[in-house]
Design goal:
single chain, 123 residues, mainly beta, seven-stranded mixed beta sheet
Length: 123
């Protein structure tokens, strides 16, 4: 059973960075893609960035140029470096893992989810 645990969230002022981490448990042999999603109450969950086992990446438009996703396959860990944070980035951030080669940031492509870590950005 794949389990994911996120960390690194917190409260920061606009313009500051945060680095999120997600550590996976055993059972990752069938996992190809790992991703970050975010959710704000009352809105749909949206994809932030995804990365394949081979290092290919895909970013949402709002994340390009500010966020960087990376992965350590040996440690079963995925990171999200977020720079120049904005109040609109405030959300619960979730780590996800899936077996699809396509990195299209569709929540339904990811079968495993963490519990989330809150990111709050104040103006």
């Amino acid at each position: 059973q794949v389990q994911l645990v996120e960390s690194g969230g917190g409260s920061v002022q606009a313009g500051m960075p945060l680095n999120l981490s997600c550590v996976g448990s055993s059972g990752f042999s069938n996992v190809y893609s790992m991703a970050w999603f975010r959710h704000v109450q009352g809105k749909e969950r949206e994809g932030v960035a995804a990365i394949g086992r081979d290092g290919r990446t895909n970013y949402a438009a709002f994340a390009k140029g500010r966020f960087t996703i990376s992965r350590d396959n040996a440690k079963i860990t995925v990171y999200l470096q977020m720079n120049d944070l904005r109040p609109e980035d405030t959300a619960m951030y979730y780590c996800a893992a899936g077996s699809f080669y396509d990195l299209a940031l569709r929540p339904t492509d990811f079968g495993y989810w963490g519990q989330g870590t809150q990111v709050t950005v104040s103006a």
